[in-house]
């Protein structure tokens, strides 16, 4: 369970501007990425404050253009994944492609209406399978009670890389 991983933290603007944070940044040394304290505004006002953890899913996301790591949503009561965002040579992506949630969390997939008909299918254990639809605003929910790593696909676009994962810990 304890795999090697590295973490990238998106700092709140309030945290980044405090003297404490600056001090910590100085004493922590230069091995970490130093662009967090920069004034580019790139990450300081990010729309998400989730930690993004790089994690190897044994090649599961090799074809997935928008996979950038596991978004830590363990502190969220409700987690939504968009179905049919831009990616994988079309609107063939889940966003975020991978999330980490706490046991008992309900994940809602919400269709954007782009990219044609999609579905959300977990095949390894048959845990969940949504309708196949292109309807904008369509939602599908699944509550993850058990810890584990759940991989799912959109069947029509799996070969394009439209796959996702939910890590429950
Ligand atoms: Cu699809």
- Rounded to the nearest angstrom, the radius of gyration is 18 Å
What topology, given as strand order, has the largest sheet?
1-2-3-6-10-9
CATH-derived architecture of the largest domain: Sandwich
Helix content: under 10%
Largest sheet geometry:
6 strands, mixed
Overall geometry: globular
Strand tally is 10
Ions, cofactors and other ligands present here are:
copper (II) ion
Describe the structure.
The protein has 2 helices and 10 strands; from the N terminus they run βααβββββββββ. It is mainly β. It has 2 domains: 1-49, no CATH class; 54-168, Immunoglobulin-like (Sandwich), CATH 2.60.40.420. β4 and β5 form a beta hairpin. The radius of gyration is 18 Å and the shape is globular. The termini are close together. The structure holds copper (II) ion. Copper (II) ion binds next to loops.
Compact description:
The chain is mainly β. It contains 2 helices and 10 strands; from the N terminus they run E-H-H-E-E-E-E-E-E-E-E-E.
């Amino acid at each position: 369970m304890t795999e090697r991983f590295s973490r990238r933290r998106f700092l709140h603007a309030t945290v980044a501007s405090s003297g404490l944070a600056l001090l910590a940044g100085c004493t922590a040394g230069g091995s970490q990425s130093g662009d967090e304290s920069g004034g580019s505004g790139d990450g300081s006002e990010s729309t998400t404050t989730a930690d993004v953890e790089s994690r190897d899913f044994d090649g599961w996301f090799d074809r997935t253009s928008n996979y950038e790591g596991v978004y830590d949503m363990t502190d969220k009561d409700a987690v939504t994944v968009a179905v049919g965002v831009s990616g994988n040579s079309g609107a063939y992506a889940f966003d975020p492609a991978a999330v980490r949630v706490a046991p008992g969390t309900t994940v809602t997939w919400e269709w954007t209406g782009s990219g044609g008909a999609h579905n959300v299918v977990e095949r390894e254990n048959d845990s969940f399978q949504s309708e196949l639809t292109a309807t904008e605003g369509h939602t599908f929910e699944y509550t993850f009670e058990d810890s584990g790593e759940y991989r799912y696909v959109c069947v029509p676009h799996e070969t394009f890389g439209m796959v996702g994962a939910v890590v429950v810990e």
